[in-house]
Amino acid sequence: MYSHMMVGSNDVERSKKFYDALFVATGGEPGVVDPKGRLMYLKDGAVFLVTPPINGEPATHGNGCTIGFAVTGPEQADAWHEAGIAAGGKAIEDPPGVRSGGGMNMYLAYLRDPDGNKLCALHRLPADA
Predict the structure, then answer these.
(1) What is the residue extent of each domain of the chain?
(2) How confident is the model over 9-44, as pLDDT tens digits?
(3) Would the pTM count as exceeding 0.85?
(4) Which of 2, 19, 65, 110 is most deeply buried (CB count within 10 A of its CB)?
């Protein structure tokens, strides 16, 4: 359904440090800055970009928006969370752990990136976990 996800940043260099840490913690590669100054990550067939806003206005985070990153298990979610905090992110919501609802069990970890965007690492668990 989705082709890519893009967030705005007021400091692409700071964002590169933060997102490089997240992607490397989950087996990805550091991002590449393209000729337009956008930061690009490719992983598992998906594209994630960070950009200064095209309209020249300051980047702001979307209230009510969450960007979810699929991870392979609780250990990878924890590594993602720890790497994000060490690289300037902020832990939010409850600590990383299992959440149940709607007949599903998920292991979730939440962060805000340095520009305030809300991020989530998610691993779906078997229903009986």
Answers:
(1) 5-52+64-125
(2) 999 999 999 999 999 999 999 999 999 899 999 998
(3) yes
(4) 19
